[in-house]
Amino acid sequence: MNYDEAINEVFFKDGSLRDIYILDTDIQVWALIFDYLESNEINYRVTIDGLITRIRDIAELLRIKKEACIGITIEYSEIDICGYFYEGSVIEFDISPIQIDSEKKIDILMNFLKSLSRKLNKTIIITPEMTMEEVLVRVEPKGKLN
User: What is the DSSP string of the chain?
Assistant: First the structure.
């Protein structure tokens, strides 16, 4: 996929977000995500009802989630990838297409997703907001990008 295709077919500016889903997950995958971010010195923050917390214990965060909104923002090379903690078979993050405004940023995001997919050994997809049926990009853990 070249830059023009990526901008016109994936990161087009229509006022909505793009969803990034990590498929076939469980709560242990969150621990792997934290480990990946920390071992690669990637800035991220976890919030409870909008306030930054240092809690990284997944079980504790999921317990707190019953009473509060738990969020995560990954700050990767001027791209913010935002998500919320859910128990389930899919982890979801959001990204604003407005941030993806150059070929360099497309490459940065795709390299991040490829590396994360390999670390987690999970498929990652990008879709239009709030739909898993229309896959715009699929990243396989073996490094293949469709």
Answer: --HHHHHHHTS--SS--EEEEE-S--HHHHHHHHHHHHHTT-EEEEEETTEEE----HHHHHHHHTTS-EEEEEEETTEEEEEE---SS-EEEEE-GGG--SHHHHHHHHHHHHHHHHHHT--EEEEETT-SSS-SEEE-TTS-B-
CA 140-36-22 angle, 5° bins? 35
Check pLDDT > 60 for residue 12: yes
Q: How confident is the model at residue 78 (pLDDT cuts 50, 70, 90)?
A: very high
Query: Partners of 124 in the beta sheet?
Result: 22, 139
Tell me, what amino acid is at 92? E
- Exposure b/e, 82-112, CB count within 10 A at least 16 = b: bbebeeeeebbbbbbbeebeeeebbebbbeb
pTM higher than 0.90: yes
Q: Got the DSSP string for 119-137?
A: HHT--EEEEETT-SSS-SE
Across 54-71, average pLDDT: 92
Task: State the pLDDT at residue 4.
Answer: 87
